[in-house]
UniProtKB/TrEMBL annotation:
All residue ranges annotated as the SAM-dependent MTase RsmB/NOP-type domain in the record: 180-453
Gene: rsmB
The protein, known as: tRNA/rRNA cytosine-C5-methylase RsmB
InterPro entries in the cross-refs: MeTrfase_RsmB-F_NOP2_cat, MeTrfase_RsmB-F_NOP2_dom, RCMT, RsmB-like_ferredoxin, SAM-dependent_MTases_sf
Record-linked SUPFAM superfamilies: S-adenosyl-L-methionine-dependent methyltransferases
Family membership: Belongs to the class I-like SAM-binding methyltransferase superfamily. RsmB/NOP family.
Chain residues that bind S-adenosyl-L-methionine: D298, D342
Residue ranges of the TM segments: none
This protein's UniProt keywords: Methyltransferase, RNA-binding, S-adenosyl-L-methionine, Transferase
Active site: C395
Species this chain originates from: Shewanella litoralis
């Protein structure tokens, strides 16, 4: 265990014996931040637990951190995972120098605002030259040039920023690869959905609360809340149930379902109910006296309890829960106008929000769920009545979890037929729809729509 000495002793997790003189308050904070961030980074990598869970627990246990501290630690940690495909290639004879090079390069790529901290990291990193192009553009090619200039690693490629197994399991046309990586190295905005009130009214209410919301060009009830952190519990529109946080790609699923105002739907894998609430909202948009009903099911009770709270906050009736307790359907067979199966998956489509997962998972995250997905889809299909809809969705970008599952399902039954759908962001007519993150600044998503003959 190394010792870092300053006017105030600091804990250290560096692996070699080194003394770093910290004279100014900024240098002391920089060393303290570096120690904390490395501890959290290693904890995530070693435990294979999601970074947001690790850092959430850390902040609950260390309430001494102010808002700036929390921002520096959180944004630096997630940025490290975002750029780890390049940063992991940095090497030095001294491990502590390697770590500060990674912090320094990461801060440059992200254009972090805390210059006093990043300058201290730069000094310890001891780059061979300070003459490097500024990262004054969000262009991935410009960021690549910056990193190559800093590191001297001329062979780095944009594709390095995603694990090799991603390219093997999620085929991307060569012409789109750069756009995919560029999207994956940026954070999407906070997308929300307006319910029970008109979108202009919601935008006006949010503006009065100091939140700049922008209406989506694709869906009348979708709004972007930008990239700044928001304490929703202090926002009246949220507390009154007028907005729900839901990514734009996720909203595509409800728009493809298009439930009728008086139809009966089953959300077979509802989780905490974001899509359940969207289905009910779409029913009420058509008729404020809608008699339609939605049953939500999940194998976990806690998300269903959260769904009930959210439905109550929104003032939505006609939503009930039916937990999966065994392989037996928790609902009656053959009675639903529509069944939505948002199946468990690798979640590769959510990597923009969870950049750590691309390095915590391996190819088995994609390959080990297909049998489960097909089983859930097959069993849930029994609940669809004649002429009813069956919608299969995942937040995966891999055909093996998407098209291949639907094709396997249709191959084993002649009772269902595939319905073509229109891609909401491109206008293309598709047999099955994959939303890529770069198409509308959102997560990635897959959806296929079928009908019982």
């Amino acid at each position: 265990m190394s010792q870092i000495r300053s006017a105030k002793p600091l804990p250290s997790v560096f692996n070699d014996s080194v003394v770093i003189d910290a004279i100014t308050p900024a240098q002391k904070r920089a060393l303290s931040y570096a120690t904390t961030i490395e501890m959290l980074f290693n904890q995530v990598m070693n435990s294979r637990m999601p970074a947001d869970r690790i850092i959430g627990q850390y902040f609950r246990e260390h309430k001494k951190h102010g808002s700036k501290d929390r921002r520096v630690i959180r944004e630096s940690l997630f940025a490290l995972f975002r750029w780890w495909g390049w940063l992991s290639q940095l090497q030095s004879e001294q491990p502590h120098v390697t770590w500060f090079k990674q912090l320094s390069a990461c801060a440059a790529l992200e254009q972090h605002a805390w210059q006093d901290i990043t300058q201290a990291w730069d000094n310890i990193a001891a780059w061979p030259t300070t003459e490097h192009p500024p990262a004054n553009s969000n262009s991935l090619n410009d960021k690549l040039a910056l990193f190559q200039s800093l590191s001297g690693l001329a062979d780095c490629q944009p594709s390095d920023l995603l694990p090799s197994w991603f390219w093997q399991t999620c085929p991307v046309a060569p012409s789109e690869q750069l756009a995919v990586v560029e999207a994956m190295t940026t954070r999407p905005p906070i997308w929300a959905r307006v319910q029970s009130i008109k979108t202009p009214t919601a935008i006006s209410q949010l503006s009065k609360a100091g939140i700049e919301a922008v209406a989506s060009q694709y869906f009348t009830d979708a709004i972007s809340l930008g990239h700044k952190s928001i304490n929703l519990n202090e926002v009246d529109s949220y507390k009154q149930g007028h907005i729900e946080i839901q990514d734009l790609a996720s909203q595509v699923i409800g728009q493809i379902c298009q439930p009728g105002a008086d139809q009966i739907w089953w959300d077979a894998c509802s989780g905490a109910g974001g899509k359940t609430l969207q289905l009910r909202s779409l029913m009420l948009q058509q008729n404020s006296k809608s008699t339609g009903t939605i049953t939500a099911s999940d194998i976990r009770n806690k998300p269903l309890e959260e769904l009930s709270k959210r439905a109550k906050r929104a003032g939505f009736n006609n939503i009930s829960v039916a937990p999966w307790k065994s392989d037996t359907l928790p609902v009656s067979e053959g009675i639903f106008d529509g069944v939505l199966v948002d199946a468990p998956c690798s979640c590769t489509g959510t990597w923009r929000r969870n950049p750590d997962m691309r390095w915590l998972d391996d190819v088995s995250a994609v390959s080990d769920k297909r049998a489960l997905q097909l089983d859930i889809l097959t069993r849930s299909a029994a609940a669809v009545k004649a002429g009813g809809q069956l919608v299969y969705a995942t937040c995966s970008l891999s055909p093996s979890e998407n098209e291949h599952v639907v094709e396997a399902f249709l191959a084993q039954t002649n009772e269902f037929e595939l319905l073509p759908v229109i891609h909401p962001f491109t206008g293309e007519l598709c047999n099955m729809l994959t939303v890529w993150p770069q198409q509308a600044d959102s997560d990635g998503m897959f959806v296929a729509k079928m009908r019982r003959k």
